[in-house]
Design a protein that fits this description.
2 copies of one chain form a homodimer. With about 350 residues, the first copy, chain A, is α/β, with parallel strands linked by helices. The first copy, chain A, folds into 2 domains: about 140 residues, translation initiation factor eif-2b, domain 1 (Four Helix Bundle (Hemerythrin (Met), subunit A), Up-down Bundle); about 210 residues, Translation initiation factor eif-2b, domain 2 (Rossmann fold). Helix content of chain A is about 40%, strand content about 20%. In chain A, the strands form 5 sheets. A 7-stranded mixed sheet of chain A has the order 8-7-6-9-12-17-18. The first copy, chain A, has a 4-stranded mixed sheet with strand order 13-10-11-16, with helices on one face. In chain A, a hairpin with a 2-residue loop joins β17 and β18. Chain A is globular. The interface between A and B is large, with 66 and 66 residues. β15 of chain A pairs antiparallel with β14 of chain B, so a sheet runs across the interface.
Chain lengths: ~350, ~350
């Protein structure tokens, strides 16, 4: 996607270094970070310099490729397996991360020489990133059929191109609609505690010139009640075999509101987000992050500095579950790179195992 | 209630000046503002130096009393009527404000001399404030019967003593439980955009030593789903004759979540919040406030200064409805100074007209 008129991906590799758009600085500054070694890239994933299921997956694949490039000839396999463990430990919820690490690890361990392993690792990581970008574009092609001129979409957190390598999941149909001249409007929930909606989704939509409004998370119910939301489209961090969805905290609340008001609730995700080894939502561990994310807010001061301010009194504790689980029963349709289909175990299995699901109008 | 061991009310009158706890500074600094004339007090209501239905009502009553004290003997009635209009225009949603202005205005216009009017105005405003404090205590006495040791309560925004003259509405049962040795736990939603939960409710509970945790507004659904919330208690800005409730934005969403999970949803309010002249929620105008409340967040910087930081990109607009309407059908019970009763037009009319509603166990 374009930033100030120049095409970017969220994450890419250049001469052994991983480059990524620094999402800590957005929307206030646009900067590209350079990560020299796999430990740097792992740290960037952990500290959320890069975030979003697809972008984390691509970064993890590149980090794994870096590890293979760094591995000594003696003890090669132990080094790359240890690196894989290290990269896996950065974020517990994102399935794309584990998927990418496994793919690059397998490709490198299958190779007969370290030299061949290095080549296979970089190639596999690159293919994964390319596939992620293409998957987003296909999600857009399938999802755009659910939209028409005037459709008012509610989205949560950031499942736009910044969360992927390109295009995004939830926002891919929005970008595709724009290319086709279909004018939609997007309500963007702030998405506390990290405010990725207000910070990243609003920035993406602003760069693309798509009409939108930021709302406090508390205001979603009001706009449903006023019949000002025609559909919800969110992304996913992991989708279980039965269709339960783990996604950013607050997603479940929006699904309950959508059901209460009879509004379609769509979950957009590429194949790599579906995990047949996870039977249902209950099997997904929910990451609880630092209470400081709730107690403090970061932004740009009137003087232009990036700062944190504490909103809560000293001594008051906070709870900070980072994700929640939306049961399949509250999902209207999945929008995937393989088509739009209902949240049934059968349709999911068909899609993940490679047979295109029957199209649903 | 006690602040650092000393008893305070939220708002009071001292030698013609209105004194109130400056809620812009909380929880970071505890300061008492002195408002010399009725226009100063009106401005304090408008800029939310004082907020919360009961505290606004008391401040408006005192402001009206100040206006009567300031009114010239010639053109007395026109002056106080003009002042009443001015005070009414500060906040459109709070019924307590209109109620207090009308009471003090009526008392002063009924008096035969300006001298008698001044005395009546100050007395009426003082009685209103005293009644508000006593109403809170009675809400506590009635509401505490719904709680037992171990009850985990979710509350929204600030409907504690800072929102009233003393005791509060939603938190009055919590304070009463503490006096009776009943140990409860309170989940406090941040309540963006102004974060009154994280700022004021957490501060109140911390001062009182009541166990609590702040959660992002997005996390409420998660805690319902985990069966970690036993009941919701919120306040109200206005309750219509049919039981529909106007309250802080986000209240409706919590009511939908409570219903979805079969959790009781209680609305605590004194008589002055019920408005029989408002037939239903649709008749309540919803105030839309500045988009800057959504785009910016205020707090205390690491250097200790009160600062605002912008979270959103330049150029992204926001929508900011300040209240929403919860239909009576989602309210389990009202907790009032006259007892606990179901949200029926009959029970409301009985309560407002003065007959104590039949007790409901």
């Amino acid at each position: 996607m374009l930033v100030n008129g120049k095409a970017y991906r969220t994450v890419w590799m250049e001469q052994g270094a991983v480059k990524l758009i620094d999402q800590h600085q957005l929307p206030h500054r646009f900067e590209v970070a350079t990560l020299v070694g796999f430990r740097d890239t792992a740290e960037a994933i952990k500290t959320m310099l890069v975030r979003g299921a697809g972008a984390i997956g691509a970064a993890a694949g590149y980090a794994m490729a870096q590890a293979v490039l760094e591995a000594p000839a003696s003890g090669f396999a132990d080094f790359v397996k240890g690196a894989a463990e290290h990269i896996r430990s950065t974020r517990p919820t994102a399935h794309d991360l584990f998927f990418a690490v496994d793919q690059v690890l397998d490709a490198s361990l299958k190779a007969s020489t370290p030299e061949a392993a290095r080549e296979a690792a970089v190639k596999t990581a690159t293919v994964l990133a390319d596939e992620n970008a293409r998957a987003g574009e296909r999600i857009g092609e399938h999802g755009v059929r659910l939209l028409k001129s005037g459709t008012r979409i509610l989205t949560h957190c950031n499942a736009g191109w910044l969360a992927f390598v390109d295009w995004g999941s939830a926002l891919a149909p929005v970008y595709m609609a724009q290319r086709q001249g279909v004018e939609v409007f997007v309500y963007v929930t702030e998405t506390r505690p990290r405010s990725q909606g207000a910070k990243l989704t609003a920035w993406e939509l602003g760069q693309a010139g798509i009409p939108h409004a930021i709302i406090a998370d508390t205001a979603a119910g009001f706009f449903f009640q006023q019949r000002m939301i025609d559909c919800v489209i969110v992304g996913a961090d992991r989708i279980a075999a039965n269709g339960d969805v783990a996604n950013k905290i607050g997603t479940f609340t929006l699904a309950v509101l959508a059901r209460h008001h009879g509004v379609p609730f769509y979950v957009a995700a590429p194949r790599s987000t579906f995990d047949l080894r996870t039977p249902d939502g209950a099997a997904i561990r929910i990451e609880e992050r630092s209470e400081d994310e709730v107690l403090w807010v970061s932004g740009r001061s009137r003087q232009g500095a990036l700062e944190q301010v504490r909103i809560a009194p000293e001594g008051s504790p906070a709870r900070n579950p980072a994700f929640d689980r939306t049961p399949a029963s509250l999902v209207t349709r999945f929008i995937t790179d393989g088509g739009v289909f209902e949240p049934s175990p059968q349709a999911i299995a068909r899609f993940v195992r490679g047979a295109a699901p029957a199209a649903i109008s």
